[in-house]
């Protein structure tokens, strides 16, 4: 690891001289693996520069006891690193995009988004128990998860299960699951983290709208790079890396979340898929797909099928030559669930997306549809409940 006090990179807009690019990240193994992915691509695009990685423990890493929903903010993963970025001691920060607030500090911006790994959640069952899916778990089985989004959706579909908070990095959580005297029957984790760490064999089953009825978190599986808004050098470096398809899909998701004023403590689930040519949409997605408010003029001439299965490089456009050609049409599923899982509002829309502005508007329109269908009341009740709990704690 590099020194604790990084020096700022030379601010050379033309990037013709050798730079030392200081890249910040959290200290966890997964964060370092993701940072290595980013630095590897930067080295390929800009081999003439040097890259130094600076890892630090954030508030979320230091406090492994408090339940995540009690923090009521995503800044616990980003604040300390952003302070170094603001002081020009870092040139960019590598984040799991789902941990980034949708409203960044005014002097910061999202420099780029890297190709998405599988965004689905994954069920990990305690070794030796033999259960293969959520539906096969016995009455009273304890599911470990730190996400109210996951627990709310699971309570709605699997009321026979119990839920307990579990904190720590992936290795710590798996150790708690595997302990002979541990309370957990299974965990629900992001598939992307397990895959990036080479722990594919720990995945019992994947969870999605088609598999388990669970929608993932906004930005899940994607890597976001935060930079200073006025740092043209860092932005030029990042212009050669990242993924346009992932960027547009994730910006639409983040717009949805920002409009609903949700966070990691609010049960909002989402899925986005790029439509491909060649197969009739109606034969694979079914009925009731809401068309966006502003579809392209030739929408009725297009056919396609929502991509299923892995949504990493296949979805990002990196392997277009190996499958059906994308139409530029994005499908979004979204859901808001009450904390107890008893109420839920969901919608599904699709629209042709070519620009970041269109992606932002699409997310806003999906959020509006959810609110019109009753999501606003669910979110209002959640916020009211949180306020009551906070007031009781102050009493």
Summarize the SSE layout with pairings.
Layout: E1 20-26, H1 29-45, E2 50-56, H2 59-62, H3 68-71, H4 79-86, E3 92-96, E4 108-113, E5 121-125, E6 142-144, H5 148-157, E7 162-164, H6 170-178, E8 186-190, H7 191-196, E9 205-207, E10 223-228, H8 232-238, H9 244-260, E11 268-276, H10 282-285, E12 290-291, E13 305-306, H11 313-316, E14 326-337, E15 344-352, H12 356-372, H13 375-394
Parallel strand pairs: 1-2, 1-3, 6-7, 6-8, 12-15
Antiparallel strand pairs: 3-10, 4-10, 5-8, 5-9, 11-13, 11-14, 14-15
Helix pairs in contact: 9-12
Describe the structure.
- This protein is of the alpha/beta class and 395 residues long.
- Helices cover 32% and strands 21% of the residues.
- The protein is built from 13 helices and 15 strands.
- The strands form three sheets. It has a five-stranded mixed sheet, with helices on both faces.
- Helix 9 (244-260) packs parallel to helix 12.
- The termini are far apart.
- 46% of the residues are buried.
- The model is unreliable at 60-76 and 279-323 (pLDDT under 50).
């Amino acid at each position: 690891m590099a020194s604790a006090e990084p020096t700022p990179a030379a601010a050379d807009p033309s990037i013709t001289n050798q730079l030392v690019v200081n890249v910040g990240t959290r200290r966890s193994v997964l964060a370092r693996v993701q940072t290595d992915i980013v630095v590897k691509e930067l080295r390929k695009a800009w081999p003439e520069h040097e890259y130094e990685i600076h890892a630090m423990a954030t508030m979320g890493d230091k406090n492994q006891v408090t339940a995540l929903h009690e923090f009521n903010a995503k800044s616990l993963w980003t604040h300390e690193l952003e302070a170094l970025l603001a002081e020009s001691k870092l040139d960019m920060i590598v984040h799991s995009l789902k941990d980034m607030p949708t409203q960044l500090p005014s002097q910061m911006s999202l420099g780029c988004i890297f190709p998405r790994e599988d965004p689905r959640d994954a069920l990990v069952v305690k070794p030796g128990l033999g259960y293969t899916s959520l539906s096969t778990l016995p009455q009273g089985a304890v599911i470990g998860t730190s996400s109210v989004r996951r627990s709310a959706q699971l309570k709605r579909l699997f009321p026979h299960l119990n839920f307990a908070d579990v904190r720590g990095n992936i290795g710590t959580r798996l150790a708690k699951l595997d302990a002979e005297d541990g309370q957990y029957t299974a965990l629900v984790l992001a598939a992307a983290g397990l895959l990036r760490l080479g722990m594919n064999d720990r995945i019992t089953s994947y969870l999605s709208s088609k598999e388990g009825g669970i929608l993932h978190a906004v930005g899940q599986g994607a890597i976001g790079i935060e930079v200073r808004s006025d740092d043209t050098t860092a932005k030029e470096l990042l212009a050669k890396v990242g993924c346009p398809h992932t960027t547009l899909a994730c910006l639409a998701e983040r717009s949805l979340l920002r409009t609903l004023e949700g966070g990691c403590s609010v049960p909002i689930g989402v899925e986005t898929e790029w439509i491909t040519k060649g197969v009739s949409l109606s034969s694979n997605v079914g009925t009731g797909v809401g068309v966006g408010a502003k579809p392209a003029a030739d929408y009725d001439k297009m056919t396609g099928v929502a991509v299923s299965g892995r949504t990493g490089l296949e979805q990002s456009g990196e392997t277009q030559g190996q499958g059906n050609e994308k139409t530029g049409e994005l499908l979004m599923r979204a859901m808001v669930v009450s904390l107890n899982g008893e109420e839920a509002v969901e919608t599904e829309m699709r629209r042709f997306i070519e620009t970041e502005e269109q992606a932002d508007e699409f997310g806003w329109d999906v959020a509006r549809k959810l609110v019109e269908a009753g999501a606003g009341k669910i979110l209002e009740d959640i916020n009211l409940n949180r306020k009551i709990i906070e007031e009781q704690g102050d009493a």
